[in-house]
């Protein structure tokens, strides 16, 4: 079998090899999953819940070892890696407790009051395919898998080729927590081969990654008529209103722009600051950016780690260079940090980026943010919405001002006085993108229910809907017309 080599972005050295699974290998994994799934679906929800809560405990207990694996593969700083531990623990707990309520059969109003008793049942889809990216290799491998499993599905996961070891370790932990072996499997390999094979075999496809690949997978899902949700790219705005608490907004912006070296679908890449507070905000933001500690290693005090690869660093650098060549100004950063390793790039603030620069509208997916001063909040909202993407937004200001702005933004999540964590961490609420940022949602009720099929069961008692067998059709029409007229008044 051919293999893929995983290398450390910090040192460039080899971490290990994983199999490059073929389409036939992927079919075998699905066959095993299909064999295991019915027994798992028949396992009481209370038992599945216990396994998820054990997973919650294991992920916290083993965090140090998992943090090492995440950091080795991604080069991210330890604090950003810990965000993934936190996310998975909270997701496991949330859906463990929510599953029984969400999956319970639901009584609904029947066709005819009293005579028709109708309820809606939920059944698992079967085998869910998950294709995940490298930027949050633990979170994005498991946060969709856990609700899919709780709903009684088996899962086949295809992690990114740069970060397979985190996914493999995570699934070992799930097995240790009690998940039957074949109920969740990992197939490592290239997107175009293994990822496509997953899309061709699964009963529901969950994808997190870039918009171009999301579109390709949507075509496969459309052709196969299977359910699909996709969490894609963003070009997320942050608005600073005149009544914002500026020191707090500065700290929030640092976190929102540079967490995980900006390689976060919901991180902020565009800031619109009101002219009344622009000087204060910019002075603080530039100083705080310059004070960030960038580096590799396990030290918890490092603020920002490396990018995922040297190749990605070159892409980020080329976006910045292109903007500067078209007239943008660098306020700080704007350079590679080769003294730290092959894939480090300085946290960067740009201003006056012209609209023909690539990074004006395209996702950089790095530690680069543009700041633009605006004369009014109306202008801020208009410019924030001027994007093909619509994933996340952040608003800094006093409550009423911020809420009014939030309700005008065309994004799936809006965080008030926070960058992204408040909405992402609100697991009871749906999360996802408008426009080119995705289809469907994760989190919330839909984050589990999308992995189920609904079955409506209606039991008719006594009289059939067609009326008494011997009633002439015309008389039936008259009786029913009268009943409908009363029903309009009585039934609401
Ligand atoms: P990518 O789309 O290139 O890769 C993501 C996954 O898709 C990987 O597992 C890859 O192997 C697989 N893949 C690639 N080509 C494929 C194909 N033709 N068929 C099937 N699978 C294929 O994304 P990336 O560049 O690695 O990740 C960064 C992107 O992901 C950014 O755009 C970012 O915004 C987005 N992202 C979105 C979210 C979100 O929740 N909205 C979260 C994280 C990342």
Automatic annotation (TrEMBL):
Recorded GO MF terms: succinate-semialdehyde dehydrogenase (NADP+) activity
Q: Which residues cross the membrane?
A: none
Q: Which Pfam families match?
A: Aldedh
What name does this protein carry? Aldehyde dehydrogenase
Species, as recorded: Corynebacterium marinum DSM 44953
Q: Which residues constitute the signal peptide according to the record?
A: none
- The gene coding this protein: gabD1
> Matching PROSITE patterns, A to Z?
ALDEHYDE_DEHYDR_GLU
Task: Return the similarity comment.
Answer: Belongs to the aldehyde dehydrogenase family.
Q: Which GO terms describe its biological process?
A: aldehyde metabolic process
**Record keywords, A-Z:** NADP, Oxidoreductase
Q: Where is the Aldehyde dehydrogenase domain?
A: 3-457
Q: Which reaction does it catalyse?
A: succinate semialdehyde + NADP(+) + H2O = succinate + NADPH + 2 H(+)
Q: Which domain of life is it from?
A: Bacteria
Which residues participate directly in catalysis? 231, 265
Entry keyword NADP: yes
> Which chain positions lie within coiled-coil regions?
none
């Amino acid at each position: 079998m051919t293999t893929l080599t995983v290398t450390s972005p910090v040192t460039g050295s080899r971490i290990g090899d994983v199999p490059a699974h073929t389409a036939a290998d992927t079919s075998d994994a699905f066959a095993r999953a299909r064999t295991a799934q019915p027994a798992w679906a028949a396992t009481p929800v209370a038992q599945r819940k216990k396994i998820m809560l054990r997973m919650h405990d294991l992920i916290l207990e083993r965090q140090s070892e998992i943090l090492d694996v995440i950091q080795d593969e991604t080069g991210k700083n330890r604090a950003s890696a810990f965000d993934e531990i936190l996310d998975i623990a909270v997701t496991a707990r949330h859906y463990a407790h929510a599953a029984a309520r969400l999956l319970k059969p639901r009584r609904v109003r029947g066709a005819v009051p009293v005579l028709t008793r109708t309820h809606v049942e939920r059944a698992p889809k079967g085998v869910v395919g998950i294709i995940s990216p490298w930027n949050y290799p633990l979170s994005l491998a498991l946060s969709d898998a856990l609700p899919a499993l709780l709903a009684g599905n088996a899962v086949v996961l295809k992690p990114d080729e740069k970060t397979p070891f985190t996914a493999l370790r995570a699934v070992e932990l799930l097995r240790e927590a009690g998940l039957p072996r074949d109920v969740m499997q990992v197939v490592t390999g290239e997107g175009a081969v293994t990822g496509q094979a997953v899309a061709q075999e699964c009963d529901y496809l969950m994808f997190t990654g870039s918009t171009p690949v999301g579109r390709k997978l949507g075509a496969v899902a459309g052709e196969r008529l299977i359910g699909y949700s996709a969490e894609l790219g963003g070009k997320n705005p942050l608005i600073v209103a005149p009544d914002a608490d500026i020191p707090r907004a500065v700290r929030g912006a640092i976190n929102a722009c540079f967490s995980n070296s900006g390689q976060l679908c919901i991180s902020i890449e565009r800031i619109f600051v009101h002219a009344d507070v622009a000087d204060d905000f910019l002075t603080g933001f530039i100083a705080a950016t310059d004070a960030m500690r960038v580096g590799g290693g396990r030290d918890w005090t490092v603020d920002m780690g490396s990018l995922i690869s040297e190749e990605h660093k070159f892409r980020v650098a080329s976006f910045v260079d292109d903007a500067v060549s078209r007239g943008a100004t660098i306020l700080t950063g704007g350079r590679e940090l080769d003294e730290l390793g092959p894939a480090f790039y300085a946290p960067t603030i740009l201003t006056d980026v012209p609209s023909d620069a690539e990074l004006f509208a395209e996702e950089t997916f790095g530690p680069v943010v543009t700041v633009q001063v605006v004369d009014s909040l109306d202008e801020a909202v208009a410019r924030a919405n001027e994007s093909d993407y619509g994933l996340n937004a952040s608003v800094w200001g006093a409550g009423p001002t911020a809420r009014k702005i939030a309700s005008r933004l065309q994004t799936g999540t809006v965080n008030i006085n926070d960058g992204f964590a408040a909405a992402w961490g609100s697991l009871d609420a749906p999360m996802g993108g408008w426009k080119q940022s995705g289809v469907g949602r994760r989190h919330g009720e839909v984050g589990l229910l999308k992995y189920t099929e609904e079955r409506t069961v209606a039991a008719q008692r006594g009289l059939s809907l067609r009326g008494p067998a011997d009633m002439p059709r015309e008389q039936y029409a008259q009786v029913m017309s009268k009943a409908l007229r009363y029903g309009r008044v009585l039934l609401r």
